[in-house]
Amino acid sequence: MDSTAVIAILQHAVPGAAFEAGPATDQPTIFVPRERLVETMTVLRDHPELQFSLLADLSAADYLPREPRFELVCHLACLGVSGAPSAAPSSPKRLRVKVRVPGDDPHVPTLSGVWPAANWLEREVWDLFGLVFDGHPDLRRLLMPEDWEGHPLRKDYPVQIRMAARANEPLQLSPEQFAANIAAARHAADKAGKKDG
Amino acid sequence: MPELRTETMTVNMGPQHPSTHGVLRLVLTLDGEVVISSDITIGYLHTGIEKTIEQKKWQQVIPLVERMDYLSSQSNSMAFCLSVEQLLGIEVPDRVKWIRVLLAELQRINSHLVWLGTHGMEIGAVTVMLYCFRERELLLNINELIAGFRMFPSYMRIGGLREDLPPGFHDAVRAFLDRFPPKLQEYQDLLTKNPIYIKRTKGVGALTREEALGLGLVGPLARASGVAYDVRRAFPYLGYETFDFDVPVGGNGDVFDRYLVRIEEMRQSTSICRQALERITPTGVFDIEDYRIVPPPKDRVYTEMEALIQHFLIYSQGFNVPAGEAYVPVEGPRGEQGFYVVSDGTNRPVRVKPRAPSLLACQALPKMIVGGLIADVIAVIGSTDVVMGDVDR
Questions:
Q1: Do B340 and A57 touch (CB under 8 A)?
Q2: In a 3-state reduction of DSSP, which class is residue A93?
Q3: Over 60: is that where the pLDDT of A168 sits?
Q4: Does the distance separating the beta carbons of A62 and B42 come in below 8 Å?
């Protein structure tokens, strides 16, 4: 099934949305408008002729200085095994779904309601690219420390940078405090020894 | 009778805990022995490999991707090479395909052996660990034979392999394939009917088919839950459709079924290895012989000016990859894995995004451990076979 066939089904199921085929050679690729993303993905998952039941991957790419700057990329797979027990299995196929996201308004609707798998994948994209997923239940950083500034996989983020993460900074003791700790521990050990003896 | 007052307790498991397979941190809330909630923190091994890759030339990426999922190095580099070869529009010769299949299947056995050993040890079967690492040593020796490097051979290259197979390769692989099936039976004798092992694993951490699909689980984890999906079957690559093998599928989705599926996979991989080894001639073509992409053979570099120039061009400037994007999935030891590569037509990638099966397995952990006992958490983490290098990258 090529991208035009997928678009034909989608235009029927999601009326009024402008879909567009992408120029990829390895698997069919379609562009989906940002506003209709959740609706489209639900159709892609549930339509008996499509049955893309597996969200294989969700990531993004930064094409600075091009505008719209970001692309959200989802790889879907129909596994060739029946997604719902009632429906007949569809033949295995893959689809790449892309969404253009402008740099001055990096917001995308969340897909975690369609596939639970999207939860952490979206947190990773927020962490590394700074795309905000509207409606996400738990949009925290995933890989970088919680108080990190900036989004490392953006093209305008420097490659080599020194920054200390404050949240994970080890406790610093002065030599005096350290000696006092040791003395207190020895004192406690002596006392316990006396009690036993 | 007066009501007993109970309090919940918060336990911090990890990041440095012997059974968390690296640096995985779980904050568990316990009510007695029962886990009532869990919060998972990852990122302790995050080294920014994706950002580093964007600074490298295409060939230089291979050692980096091998170090992501450090138990399936050859599957990683194979998946990356396949995606770049898709962009370049080239197809490797048959002999290279069979060698890649053979090495990828040996890698799967290797990874499953480490999994079986550590998983067995964590729930008390220490003998299995010693046995598994004994057989794994033979596989590492084969890696050493072909590349001089035991864990990360970097033997797969874009457009073929680094060099031809060394003398004695067939004998080494055949010796392993003859020795392995009886040993595999030995592991099964130790565990499959062991009442302690069964009690620790049966019905523990079960996932239904729908939960596994929704959470994006693939590979042995999903197959144990009854999702009969194997990339080698559904989307064949490297001529897997010409090999004869079965895809084992479980039904209960618990730790015990995951064990059975992986054991059977090792048996099937041994069979694929035998078939592939039959097709590989001891010497022959080992790359596409297009010297714009692969370096010319050394005997020509030493004798011909043009070959020498080409050699330096490849290693100093690399080669350009046509603009576009590609994602070729392969069946790694942990399920579907692949690299989404984007090129702008230059000698460096714009974006390389690995699909990390371990990340999704990690995400599914709360679903498996909440409501169970704290002692089962160890068994469940072991059964998911997460590799933190793949989770954090």
A1: yes
A2: strand
A3: no
A4: no
Of B42, B48, B326, the CB nearest to A152: B48
Q: ipTM of the assembly? A: 0.86
Which chain B positions have a beta carbon within 8 Å of A145's beta carbon? 43
Q: Residues of A with CB below 8 A from B355's CB?
A: 56-57, 75
H-state helical runs in chain B: 49-53, 61-66, 73-88, 94-122, 126-147, 169-191, 195-201, 209-214, 219-224, 231-234, 255-279, 298-301, 305-316, 357-363, 365-369, 374-384, 388-392
The structure tokens 């022995």 sit at: B33
A116 neighbourhood in chain B, CB within 8 Å: 214-216
Distance CA B213, CA A54 (A): 6
User: Is there a contact between B286 and B160 (Cβ–Cβ < 8 Å)?
Assistant: yes
**What are the chain A neighbours of B51 within 8 Å (beta carbons)?**
152-153, 157, 159
Domain region containing B167: 9-392
Residues of chain B with C-beta less than 8 angstroms from the C-beta of A157:
51
Confidence of residue A180 (pLDDT cuts 50, 70, 90): confident
Q: Give mean pLDDT, residues B181-203.
A: 87
Interface check A80 vs B, CB under 8 A: yes
**CATH classification of the domain holding B80:** 1.10.645.10
- Total number of domains in chain B: 1
**What predicted TM-score, i.e. pTM, was given to this entire model?**
0.87
Domains of chain A and any CATH numbers = 3-196 (3.30.460.80)
Q: Which residue on chain A is closest to B52 by alpha carbon?
A: A159
With H, G, I as helix, E, B as strand and everything else as coil, classify residue A186.
helix
Nearest CA-CA distance, residue B146 and chain A, Å: 31
* B326–A75 CB contact, under 8 Å: no
Q: What is the mean pLDDT of residues B240-259?
A: 89
**Which region among A52-61, B344-353, B356-365, B384-393 has the lowest average model confidence (pLDDT)?**
B384-393
Reported as a single tens digit per residue, the pLDDT across B2-13 is 677 677 888 888
Query: What span, in angstroms and rounded, lies between the C-alpha atoms of B46 and B362?
Result: 15
Q: What are phi and psi for residue B112, nearest 5 degrees?
A: -65, -30
Structure tokens given for B125: 């079967």
